[in-house]
Amino acid sequence: MNIAALLNPQIQNYILEKNNSDVSKLAFQNNPFPEIDFKIVLNQIECRTKSKDKLPTWFTTKNIIYPSKISVEQTSSETTAKYKSELISGENLIDLSGGFGVDDYYFSKKINQVIHCEINADLSKIVAHNMEQLSVSNVICIEGDSRETLLNLNRKFDWIYVDPSRRNDLKGKVFMLKDCLPNVPDEQEFYYNFSDNILIKTAPILDITSGISELKNVKTIHIVAVENEVKELLWEIEKHYNDAISIKTINFNKEKIDGFEFKFNSEAFSKYSLPKKYLYEPNSAIMKSGGFTEIGNYYSLDKLHQHSHLYTSDDLIEFPGRVFEIDKIISYSKSDLKLYLENTKANITTRNFVDTVEIIRKKWKIKDGGNNYCFFTTDKNDNKIVLICTKINL
């Protein structure tokens, strides 16, 4: 990529002026800058637009250069990058899969020297340029293979950070770390030659139990969600650590930050009851964690059913998730559905239920929206029930 050409003030002004423009329509216009491929300029416009909410620091900084659209889509948000930076300390860190450098920007605020290792030459140059624009002087960009870079540097780091990429679009809901580049399970012992602490970022689709089975010395797993959407899993690895694994969930909302922590495979048992006055639905980070018994016990809540993952109480409490007051409990029967829900408007959620939301809406002509929240679920006696609720904003 010709960074110098893109930094032409006229091109930069054009990119700023066309923010939020429909790039597909701009592509049919004549290229106002014949000295550069117009597709490159259009990519800058599209990527900058995408960065507005995800990367506000980059969006508001002059002369930032963007890589391919997929690199911007796959990079950490500033919210998650800042969270990661709170997990590390020491003098130096090497990032084996540097990418667009958002994580390293935040690491650089917590650690004296950060090595950004990136095999893509263009991307490495882009990050080096952007760090200058962002007034960051303690990030060193090295182009090349991460394994070779470690061998060439031949030094100890306080932390190794790695974000392995999937080799291909694997089908199904579960993938293995061994299917990624770099293959961290195979490389883990090699990494210990250069650091005792490893922080791994993986996609939320990775199954936690399978990740634990592949990796050694897992100390803590962080499940990070933003606005109730799980964005990434973070795996803290410490050489020689063989104690219980901590699971930490965090959900960043505009109003508040919800966190919850428990020990993996703790010996705990749930209490069950029929629906009481209030209903609780854990946020997506807790749902991903599998800590269904732990969350209920911590907040002294009863579960509706082993597999429903909904909780209930007579007293209202603050809870990391959605909270509802139960207005009515009905059976999943033709007579009750026709009486209370047919041809109405409601927000529908299913938990451990025989029918999908789409089937329920179609069968009973229920439109989406309104103030009613309906949970189609199964109670502790294996009865199919519907909880008609009002949402409570705590």
From TrEMBL:
Q: Name one Pfam family in it.
A: PG_1098_Fer
Presence of the UniProt keyword Acetylation in the record: no
Against Gene3D superfamilies, the record matches this protein to:
Methyltransferase PG1098, N-terminal domain, Vaccinia Virus protein VP39
SUPFAM superfamilies reported in the protein's UniProt record: S-adenosyl-L-methionine-dependent methyltransferases
Keyword Transferase tagged: yes
Q: Which GO terms describe its molecular function?
A: methyltransferase activity
Q: Which UniProt keywords apply?
A: Methyltransferase, Transferase
Q: List the GO biological process terms.
A: methylation
- Enumerate the InterPro entries for this protein: PG_1098_Fer (IPR054168), SAM-dependent_MTases_sf (IPR029063), Thump-like (IPR041497)
Domain PG-1098 ferredoxin-like, chain residue ranges per copy: 278-320
Q: Which domain of life is it from?
A: Bacteria
Q: Which residues form the THUMP-like domain?
A: 321-391
What name is this protein filed under? SAM-dependent methyltransferase
